[in-house]
Each structure stands twice: as structure tokens, then as C-alpha cells.
Amino acid sequence: MTSGGNIFQGDDEDRVIVAQIISGQKELFRLLVKRYERAVYGMGISFFRNADDASDFRQEVFLKVFRNLPQFEGRSRFSTWLYKVAYNTALNTAARKKDYQSLVEGEMAADNDTPERNFLKSIAREAVLEAITGLPEKFRICVDLFFFYDRSYQEIEMITGYPVNTIKSHVSRAKKRLRLKLEGYKGLADGGAQ
Questions:
Q1: Distance CA 181, CA 123 (A)
Q2: Who contacts 179 (Cβ-Cβ below 8 Å, separation ≥6)?
Q3: Measured between alpha carbons, how far is residue 76 from residues 55, 68, 83 in Å?
Q4: Which CATH number fits domain 101-194: 3.40.50.9100, 3.40.50.1370, 3.30.1330.30, 1.10.10.10?
């Protein structure tokens, strides 16, 4: 997991790209879109539960990001700022049809995965889903941001506005449930049988 004070190579690249876009090289925005479109689309699927609405959401988010890029001050990672824009867009979209659905509730198998890997992923997805089932729906986004978007507690607070202690509590609860659920699957990861 990340820590709030680490600067990653990708973050430095993002900052350089953002500075170049702001200084007039608008065509470089496609690099940011390429880097983050899958994550934004995934958040769209979580909120809207269908591909058309998720695609529209992704387009709306990147339009907002492009228009507001000069407001990015660099006090956080670019991706954190982007996810905050996406999260707020999802919450404020009048066409929102359903409540938030965790990424683990959708299909996330890669096209080139083997049947065995897909099976293990499905077990993990079910375990994570069960682990977060008891959480209040509005805090499931915290668990997704922590596990699937690799955000720190402080970054999740910046994105959602929820207090860090609340985020920690829900992530901790999900981890405990997940650990208990996965106890029975230890041998599967190594190809062994129970």
C-alpha cells in the first residue's frame, strides 16, 4: 500500500504532463486519459452498473478534469485529485440510477487469464464482496479506493470527505472479514487441494 509522503515515478510524470498541458500542449492530455481511463470507467461501473452510463461518466469526468486542470495545485497525487473529481461527479450526477456497487461485484477478469486464474479471481472477488457486505453502502467506496485504487487513508479522506478514523474502521473491518473468509482457500493459491 502507499503512504501519504511517498512520491512515485508515475506521479512525477503526471505532474510534468499536467504542467505541459497547462502551458499549451493540450494534445498531451491523451496520455492522462490513457493512463487513468480504465480506473475511471471502473468507478463508473461501480456507480451506474452498465457500460453505456459508465462510458458517458468517463467522458464527463475527463472533460471536467481537462477544464479544471489549472486548479490542480499538486498538493496531492494527480490520480487522487482525478478520483475526487470522478467521485464527486458520480455523486452529483442527476441521471444516477442505482446505488454504489463495489468493483468486486462486477467482472474484472483479464482477457488473457487462464481458467485457473479466473477461478481464483472469482473466489477472491466473492470473498472481498462478502467481507464488505456488512459495511454501510456509502463506505464501500472507501474499501474499493483502498484495495483496488491503492489510495492511502488520507487520500481517501480527500476524495470522499469521510473522516480518516471512519475509513480506517471500515477498511479494518473488511480486512478481518476477508482474512477469515480466505482461511479456507490457502491451498488453492498454490494449486494444492484442501
A1: 10
A2: none
A3: 26, 15, 11
A4: 1.10.10.10
Amino acid letter, 55: S
How is residue 188 written as a grid cell?
488453492
CA 42 to chain centre: 7
Sign of the C-alpha dihedral computed for residues 171, 175, 178 and 180 taken in this order: negative
pLDDT tens-digit readout, 93-113:
744 454 555 555 554 444 556
pTM above 0.70, yes or no: no
Alpha helices, H only, 71-185: 78-92, 115-133, 140-147, 153-160, 164-182
Extract the C-alpha cell encoding 52.
453505456
Selected residue with higher pLDDT from 126 and 164: 164
Domain ranges of the chain: 1-98, 101-194
Which CATH fold topology does 1-98 show? Rna Polymerase Sigma Factor; Chain: A (1.10.1740)
Query: Which DSSP letter does residue 75 get?
Result: S
